[in-house]
Amino acid sequence: MGDYKIIAINPGSTSTKIAVFKGTEKIFSENVEHSAEDLAQFKEVSDQLEFRLGMILDMLKEAGIELNDLDAAVGRGGGVMSVEGGIYEVNDIMYDHAVRGANGVQHPAQLGPQIARKFAEEYGCKAFMLNPPDTDEAIPYARMTGIKGVLHKTHAHALNQKETAIVHSDKMGVKYEDMNYIVCHIGGGTSITAHRKGKMIDSNDIVGGDGPMTPTRCGSVSAADLIDYIFDNNLDKKTAKNLTTKTGGFVDLLGTSDAREVRARIAEGDEFAKLVYESMKYQITKQIGAMAAALKGQVDAILLGGGMVHDEGLVETIKEACGFIAPIYAYPGEFEMEAMANGAIRALDGIEEVKEYTGKVNYDEKMFLGE
């Protein structure tokens, strides 16, 4: 692998993670915090671009990090239409879609390609996006619903999931593209995905609150019950949607999104907190079972990643419930920054083809309308 200098950018709701790599070695890492007051001045996510970029540049300057020899900038993707997994160069279409949030989802991740493009323009390097949340490799059966024109969408933690699968495969001396995995990212949002021979063929939709309950998401709910709840409580569209991704789950039930606080309450004898937490774990194991069926039982391993995997009790519950399916391996935390750097290295070395973002969804929508 080439000894390239790469910066990875991962914008989140209240912070921007940055890391600078020399080859595969991380030489600098920082999490730049943004106060709610500072962000409140911006109407749209993309309006934050210059503010966040300025803070990043100030941080790098203070740390004495030189960027004149930068080879690539990689931003976590967002705002783009569904794409096949892989690495993409940030072109004009992608940049425009990231600015606008062309997929209808407003999320700080859409600043990733924008910031990467700014670095490329300033330092003459490449700008990439790798495995965005909009990575969608689902098989047709996984898309179909019983309402004409409404498809099951896939939004998952593709960046961390695929890197976890690659890391595990390397550890086992096999190729990700040859294996069948169920990969789980368990955190503020939880995505559980069937990976078949390097493709994410089915998953829950974290943007829609689909799948298990999480600290901030409601999880799958009966459509009829949800409709009744919205009308009975006179919720507007924004408030109702927030229940799916921001104010549902632990937030609605327990008034906190901090899983550590919930576990502390349980340790102090809070029976309701225990019911909520154990219900979440139960729903996670059910989703794993569903993905095992999607892979027709041919599962080489179940891989657990994300911040909540630091909870050994959670891991043990999953092993007890799902150990009959396949061996289970825990990789607590995230590999997202390393994933972006490694993807850029593969692209610069010519090991992995750099794909072109066209701005069109990567499946035939007409086939689901009977046309």
In short:
The protein is built from 13 helices and twelve strands.
Tell me about the largest β-sheet: 7 strands, mixed
- Tell me the fraction of residues in β-strands, as a range: 15-25%
| Mean pLDDT over the full residue set | 94
Overall number of strands: 12
Q: Can you tag this structure with a few keywords?
A:
371 residues; 7-stranded mixed beta sheet; 5-stranded mixed beta sheet; globular; alpha/beta; 18% strand; 13 helices
Tell me what the structure shows.
The chain is of the alpha/beta class and 371 residues long. The chain is 38% helix and 18% strand. The chain contains 13 helices and 12 strands. It has helices spanning 36-40, 49-62, 92-100, 111-123, 140-143, 158-172, 223-232, 237-245, 250-254, 259-267, 271-294, 312-322, 336-349, and strands spanning 5-11, 15-22, 25-33, 72-75, 87-89, 126-130, 180-186, 190-196, 199-203, 301-306, 328-332, 354-355. A 7-stranded mixed β-sheet has the order 3-2-1-4-6-5-12, sandwiched between helices. Strands 9-8-7-10-11 form a 5-stranded mixed β-sheet, with helices on both faces. A hairpin with a 3-residue loop joins β7 and β8. The termini are far apart. The model has no long low-confidence stretch (mean pLDDT 94).
